[in-house]
């Protein structure tokens, strides 16, 4: 289902466990920072809304989305229950977009396979800045909210498994 048909900020709040016992790491790419800051706000506000204590949210910044891989790997080494990797990749004139998107997706997938701490893929991969705006707090909601919900659910799954 396309994002246009499912708002990123819509979810059943009754299905979310109280997250006051969890600690989260958030790694934020500085590329397209007007977008990534909007994603971060969506994620942070959602974690707080579900009981996470502000002191239990660690934020690190990295230069670009490709560095989310290394930053998330190091964040997994901290005492956190889940990591959220936040980035915004926007198509330019060349194939670089393809390599960055594929590299980050594969790298974060590998971190989920190799290590115990879940890493949530909160990376927008848009054709235009307008698409990114619409998915970071615009008409299609906020992928940061979606990512925070996923992080809480995966932290709970890890705790119970
Ligand atoms: N074009 C975008 C980039 N490019 C930079 C890479 O992510 C990386 O930092 C660089 O290749 C050095 O390793 N990054 C984004 O996050 N978004 C873009 O649109
Ligand atoms: C995703 C990118 O790296 C891209 O925005 C860079 O732009 P260009 O392909 O025009 O070099």
From TrEMBL:
<comment type="pathway">
    <text>Cofactor biosynthesis; riboflavin biosynthesis; riboflavin from 2-hydroxy-3-oxobutyl phosphate and 5-amino-6-(D-ribitylamino)uracil: step 1/2.</text>
</comment>
<feature type="binding site">
    <location>
        <position position="31"/>
    </location>
    <ligand>
        <name>5-amino-6-(D-ribitylamino)uracil</name>
    </ligand>
</feature>
<dbReference type="InterPro" id="IPR034964">
    <property type="entry name" value="LS"/>
</dbReference>
<keyword id="KW-0686">Riboflavin biosynthesis</keyword>
<comment type="similarity">
    <text>Belongs to the DMRL synthase family.</text>
</comment>
<protein>
    <recommendedName>
        <fullName>6,7-dimethyl-8-ribityllumazine synthase</fullName>
        <ecNumber>2.5.1.78</ecNumber>
    </recommendedName>
</protein>
<keyword id="KW-0808">Transferase</keyword>
<dbReference type="InterPro" id="IPR036467">
    <property type="entry name" value="LS/RS_sf"/>
</dbReference>
<dbReference type="Pfam" id="PF00885">
    <property type="entry name" value="DMRL_synthase"/>
</dbReference>
<dbReference type="GO" id="GO:0000906">
    <property type="term" value="F:6,7-dimethyl-8-ribityllumazine synthase activity"/>
</dbReference>
<feature type="binding site">
    <location>
        <begin position="88"/>
        <end position="90"/>
    </location>
    <ligand>
        <name>5-amino-6-(D-ribitylamino)uracil</name>
    </ligand>
</feature>
<feature type="binding site">
    <location>
        <position position="135"/>
    </location>
    <ligand>
        <name>(2S)-2-hydroxy-3-oxobutyl phosphate</name>
    </ligand>
</feature>
<dbReference type="InterPro" id="IPR002180">
    <property type="entry name" value="LS/RS"/>
</dbReference>
<feature type="active site" description="Proton donor">
    <location>
        <position position="96"/>
    </location>
</feature>
<feature type="binding site">
    <location>
        <position position="121"/>
    </location>
    <ligand>
        <name>5-amino-6-(D-ribitylamino)uracil</name>
    </ligand>
</feature>
<feature type="binding site">
    <location>
        <begin position="93"/>
        <end position="94"/>
    </location>
    <ligand>
        <name>(2S)-2-hydroxy-3-oxobutyl phosphate</name>
    </ligand>
</feature>
<feature type="binding site">
    <location>
        <begin position="65"/>
        <end position="67"/>
    </location>
    <ligand>
        <name>5-amino-6-(D-ribitylamino)uracil</name>
    </ligand>
</feature>
<comment type="function">
    <text>Catalyzes the formation of 6,7-dimethyl-8-ribityllumazine by condensation of 5-amino-6-(D-ribitylamino)uracil with 3,4-dihydroxy-2-butanone 4-phosphate. This is the penultimate step in the biosynthesis of riboflavin.</text>
</comment>
């Amino acid at each position: 289902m396309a994002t246009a048909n499912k708002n990123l900020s819509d979810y059943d709040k009754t299905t979310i466990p109280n997250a006051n016992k969890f600690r989260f790491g958030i790694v934020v790419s500085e590329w397209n920072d007007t977008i990534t800051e909007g994603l971060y706000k969506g994620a942070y506000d959602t974690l707080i809304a579900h009981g996470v204590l502000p002191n239990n949210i660690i934020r690190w910044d990295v230069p670009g989305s490709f560095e989310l891989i290394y930053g998330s790997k190091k964040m997994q080494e901290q005492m956190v229950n889940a990591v959220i990797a936040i980035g915004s990749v926007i198509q330019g004139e060349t194939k670089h977009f393809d390599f960055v998107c594929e590299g980050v997706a594969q790298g974060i997938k590998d971190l989920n396979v190799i290590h115990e701490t879940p890493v949530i893929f909160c990376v927008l991969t848009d054709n235009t800045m307008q698409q990114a705006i619409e998915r970071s707090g615009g008409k299609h909601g906020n992928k940061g909210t979606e990512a925070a919900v996923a992080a809480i659910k995966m932290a709970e799954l890890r705790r119970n498994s």
